[in-house]
Amino acid sequence: MPLPGHRNEGWHAPVRRVVFTAVVLAFAALATPAPSAGKDPTASSREAMVRTQIEARGIRDQAVLQAMRQVPRHRFVPEARGKEAYGDHPLPIGLGQTISQPYIVALMTELLALEEDHKLFELGTGSGYQAAVASRIAARVFTVEIYEQLAASAAARLRDLGYENVAVRNGDGYSGWPEEAPFDAIVVTAAADHIPPPLLEQLKPGGRMVIPLGNPFFVQQLVLVTKDAEGRIEETPVIPVRFVPLLGH
Amino acid sequence: MRLPLSVFWLSASTLSYEIIVIRVLARTHWQPFVTLAISTALLGFGLAGTLMVWSGAGAFGRRGALYPLACALAALSFRPVVRVAEALDLIPGLIFSDPGQWLSLGGLIGVLTLPFVFASYGLALPLLERESVGKFYGSNLAGACAGVALALGGMELLPPQYLAHVPSASAGLACLLALSHYGHRRSLPAAAAALAALLALPAGPVAYGPYKDISYALLLPDSRTLARSWGAAGLLEVVGAPAMRTAPGLSTRFRGPLPPQAALYRDGDRVGTLVLSGEGQDAHPPYLQWQTAAAPYVLFQDHPRVVVLGFDGGEEALRASASGAGRVQVIEPDAAVHGLVRDHPGLFPPGPGGRPFVREVGLVRSNARWRLGRGIADIVVIPLAGNLASAVAGFGGAEEDYLLTAQGLERALEELGTDGVLAITGWKQEPPTGRMKILATIGTIPGFQEAGQVRDKVRVVTGWSTYTMLVSRKRLERGGLSRLESFCSARGFLLWTPGEYGPSAAEEGREGLDLRPATDARPYPWHTLGAGLLLKALGGEREEVLPRMEWGLLFLVMALALALAFILLFVLLTGRRPSNRKGLPLLVYFGCLGVGYMVVEILVIKRSGLLIPEPARAAALVVAPFLIFSGLGSFAVIKVERSRLAGAWVFPAVALGTVLLYLAIPALLTAPEPFQPFLLVALTAPLALIMGLPFPLGLRVQSRDRERFVPWAWALSGYTSTLGSALAGVMAVFTGLGALVALAAASYLAAGVILVATRGKGSAL
Q: Chain A 80-99, CB below 8 Å of chain B: which residues?
């Protein structure tokens, strides 16, 4: 659903602009736009983000690029940080957590090789942005967040924005989501010092897991873990990254 | 007598605050960062001098009001400043992307500097009284000594949140004495009541930065602080939570649960794991055998004697015990750890004898560098926790670690019997910079220098997120290697022989990484970021560098830039005083002294890490004697000036003394451990004594316009000292401690030449 402000682009007076922005934001907050928000004031920022930060660094998966274009990242960052939402960097979201740099979100999503009928498990919901992006490609996303406050706000945000195929749970994600297992893909969005054995068990043969592995308090290696049909595990290091620690580590 | 006493207490407050700042920085933002704490102190001195230059002779005239005011402001500022510093939301990882972080960093430095400005402004005022300068100088020095004692005592005895009470109380006392001396008797009751109220205010809980490891743990559901202990090395806390599970490098073939765990934190940074005791719990949790750190035990079929370097919460000792070790000894220098184990034995699972296993292993309080080489062990373990503590959040790069230097590793190998193995566990990285740096270091140790020796004696077990390097004193035998291969194969680990594949240290060096061996002269095993890469990051090309940025180093570079900016600003605003032909030479002279003095002091602090591993204690034991003996030395200025060479000998003597002290400190490791701090002070004293002479020698060149010239020299010296301390921090990492010796010697020799030349132009003497 296009946002109602598009026709007003010709306004110049600063006061009117402020009022207009407030109205647009109010509409955006009240309305439940489809995740594919269409033409809105931030679409050009997202397009620029995709072009200069993501495609330029080699992400080629069209489904991923389309998802990154669709998901309104500014809705997943604290209001005061809204202007920085499409910058090429992570942002704090409170409780010592961050929303990852857009490129890292895109890279992790591409590495998961999601398909339309896939079921994804995410450990560490945070703001809900990674889940929202993945939900544009996969059939179902199950995400667990240990902080009650973050889980509640992410669930409300995803619901308000219409991401109906994302299920959020507050709890300890180390044990995965056994009732919904096995998963085609698993993504861990915090630094881990080992691969949680329950997650390996809940990964389907042929499935893929992306996890930042290493010193949780310094640099980690983003690792792609694959499980073949016989259940053998293989790891492929991708790039060095810095994530906040996986709680419990 | 009341004013000298007041100066004594004000000086005590300044010194105790300087040492306490080290603790505050460690808890709120990063590991003990001595250089930055000293830089903020000296910046405060520079700013106070600038204020005095601007206020001119008028300040001296109003000292009866200004001095008590400075004391009161200092007393009032210590506690709120510490609170503000704790509350600042500084996230190093976002500094290049979030402009607000620069404000936070600037705010942190500015806020910590503020009490130094008040206190040093107060301390400078009485020194302008030429007739009584000796008396005040003596009080100042005695106060500095008392301040160090108060800070060290406070760190041992007081809960950390009450540490800022120490300088507050001292400065408050100074204020009361000053009010009494200057006849403000009517203000005394109100001031005394204010001081009592200030000290009675509750301190609140211990605060940590939001991105400290412990902050995450404390937010976990049902998390609890299970034990707490403190000392000069920092605040130790054990935090447990049901969701806490850690097993670095755990094999993906491990099936089974992890036992209930807690984590041990020092100043909020994780240093280890405690396997908690509990009913029906396996005394030897199976997961311990599924990590790379279990590899050394498969090389021994009987009961190996094991020495663990550093208490990591007991996990390594438990692993040794679970692996059939005959005797386990843990060497740990921090008294607070010993207190924690003594007071909370119930946290640890029982050992074979039925007592908590940490009571059954030998927990020895000692500095590993001193202790090693005295026993015969089969396995010496440098656990991951030791590596973790040093490398936390990229701050470890600029910190000294004398255990993983060529000389430190050699000592560890000397602890081993002929079949013994040194096991070093670290985090896996791509490229494996940490591992390559350790290998390069091992390659310089006798017995490993010839071609093929490293390949024959070293193996690396690589897991999913950790590696364990096994360094044998002799060529690894076929039987042991075969068992090692089976161990790796069962766990999906790789067994790597150095030189088999992967880039060499030289190749990585060409990529801009610094993988030169760590030595006692360049004790930075965690530093791998080449200068070129750091400059790239500062120049805007950050993507490649950011993940491995050494934030401690970056902050030192920024402190360096800040000091340079302040010097330029100061010179531009105040001109070259005295405004005669001696102006420029004196500017350079005091600049050389500021840089030289601080380079020597920082050099000695860094070198002392060999003997005293706790940074705050090492700093206190170096800064105090430097101040005291330099002050005493300055009393001899007239005598020295009237000697045959008119003090010209002082400068080469400082240069020579610096070289000798640098060479002598490692020799103290052969002395009994309890005597080492005293011997260090005794060795430092003669050098500090003569280092006290150049500043007053310079002041005496300019005898007129003293009320303006002394503050000018005071401020300039403060700024150039800030420059010196930051420069020393950066240079030590990139060029080694030897370069600091050269810089200090060059600074003092240049100052000597300038003094002689300036006097030749027509001295006022």
A: 84, 87-92, 95-96
